[in-house]
């Protein structure tokens, strides 16, 4: 018989318009009595749910993380109850025998025995920072989409300035593009005064590249794209100001994270804190944190055979962020350890697995830095300028023959002397 961990607990089946809550009370004989009620998701009704739980002396609550619908319930119960938000794959009911009431009882039974692993729910301030940083990320994607649309309009108009300059949206390029938009009929304008630096050496080539035909519909589309692009930049700036105001209590943790190679931008450090928080005690170990972030291979073994061991799909936001940091870390001249480690793995496993391994190392470092409240120690990652010799300096005749055989050569038996 399974051990009763929570004699009084509640399972909540969450939906958009209502929730179904079941309180299970287990006596000393191990018999559980269930009481089920349905509540609307309006704040007034959720407060009635909280008062009902208080009257039942129930502080242990388990609910499924259904989209965003669990947030209103969690916001009301967070202060009084110990709420476990479960991943749906861990509490999925049997198909064909599902009703709202049965689902809530099933959640209650699982939680009663302590069988539901809780999801990581950071404190309110961290959740607010996370939400704003993810929104900033989305706005940056919109900004990139508008740049691509502008580039497409130039290409279909036979304006191939992107083939000559490194940045189509640089200062000189934008002066030329704005002049073409404002004066579409002016074909023989002097572009030399619009260029600066080394671009003046490409004057003739740039003149040939902008000899195109920008139609009125394409010009109107580009003006709309530029207006949207400027609005997005303004919105990003406004979001950044709000975020910088929220992170004031975590300035010391930001300094610690920014001491790591590959992390120079303050918003990169803020995004990491927004995803994992600053309290590492919620994770069992650094390995647990890396697994949560989707940077470790999965366990998929059956009948003694290991199947796919790809990294999991977890860490939708933090994994790409750490991979970008890893790409920067392997270029760091101050700490060549990451570059050496990357090259070692890349030879055997390729770039993708090597860069994931470096991201794993970076997250390990962040975990221990936040636990110890210490900045990155470069002395721990020093490597010798001359790599250690990994092979024997004295190669015997037998070793040479065995090496040639591994390469596919057939070595005849040598006459004995």
Mean pLDDT: 89
Q: What low-confidence regions span 5 or more consecutive residues with pLDDT below 50?
A: none
Number of strands: 7
Q: Roughly how much helix do the residues carry, as a percent range?
A: 40-55%
Shape: extended
Distance between the ends: 78 Å
User: How are the strands ordered across the major sheet?
Assistant: 3-2-1-4-5
Number of helices: 14
Secondary structure layout:
Elements: E1 8-14, E2 18-26, E3 32-40, H1 43-55, E4 60-64, H2 70-77, E5 82-86, H3 100-112, H4 124-156, H5 171-182, H6 203-209, H7 216-246, H8 251-258, H9 266-276, H10 286-292, E6 301-302, E7 305-306, H11 318-329, H12 337-349, H13 351-372, H14 397-406
Parallel strand pairs: 1-4, 4-5
Antiparallel strand pairs: 1-2, 2-3, 6-7
Helix pairs in contact: 1-2, 4-7, 4-9, 8-9, 10-13, 11-13, 12-13
């Amino acid at each position: 018989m399974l051990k009763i961990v929570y004699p009084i607990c509640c399972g909540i089946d969450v939906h958009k318009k209502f929730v179904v809550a079941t309180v299970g009370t287990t006596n000393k004989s191990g018999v559980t009595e269930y009481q089920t009620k349905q509540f609307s998701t309006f704040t007034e009704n959720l407060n009635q749910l909280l008062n009902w739980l208080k009257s039942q002396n129930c502080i242990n609550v388990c609910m499924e993380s259904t989209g965003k619908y669990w947030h209103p319930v969690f916001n009301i119960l967070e202060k009084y109850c110990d709420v476990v938000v479960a991943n749906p794959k861990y509490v999925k009911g049997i198909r064909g025998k599902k009703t709202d009431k049965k689902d809530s009882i099933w959640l209650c039974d699982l939680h009663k025995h302590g069988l539901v692993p809780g999801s990581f729910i950071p404190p309110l301030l961290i959740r607010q920072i996370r939400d704003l940083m993810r929104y900033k990320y989305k706005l940056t994607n919109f900004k990139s989409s508008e740049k691509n649309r502008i580039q497409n309009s130039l290409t279909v108009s036979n304006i191939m300035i992107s083939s000559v300059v490194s940045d189509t949206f640089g200062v000189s390029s934008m002066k030329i593009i704005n002049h073409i938009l404002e004066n579409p009929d002016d074909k023989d304008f002097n572009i030399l005064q619009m260029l600066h630096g080394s671009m003046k050496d490409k004057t003739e080539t740039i003149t040939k590249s902008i000899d195109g035909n920008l139609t009125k519909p394409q010009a109107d589309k580009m003006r709309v794209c530029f207006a949207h692009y400027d609005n997005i930049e303004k919105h990003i700036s406004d979001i950044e100001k709000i975020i910088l105001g929220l992170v004031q209590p975590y300035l010391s943790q930001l300094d610690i994270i920014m001491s790591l190679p590959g992390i120079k931008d303050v918003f990169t450090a803020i995004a990491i804190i927004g995803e994992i928080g600053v309290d590492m005690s919620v994770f069992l170990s650094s390995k647990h944190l890396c697994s949560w972030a989707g940077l470790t291979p999965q366990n998929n073994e059956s009948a003694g055979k290991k199947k796919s061991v790809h990294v999991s799909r977890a860490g939708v936001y933090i994994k790409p962020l750490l991979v970008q940091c890893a790409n920067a870390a392997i270029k760091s001249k101050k700490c060549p350890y990451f570059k050496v480690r990357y090259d070692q793995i890349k030879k055997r496993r390729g770039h993708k697995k090597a860069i994931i391994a470096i991201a794993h190392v970076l997250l390990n470092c962040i975990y221990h830095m936040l636990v110890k409240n210490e900045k990155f120690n470069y002395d721990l990652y020093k490597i010798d300028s001359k790599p250690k010799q990994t092979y024997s300096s004295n190669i015997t005749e037998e070793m040479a023959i065995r090496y040639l055989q591994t390469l596919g050569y057939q070595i005849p038996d040598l006459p004995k002397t």
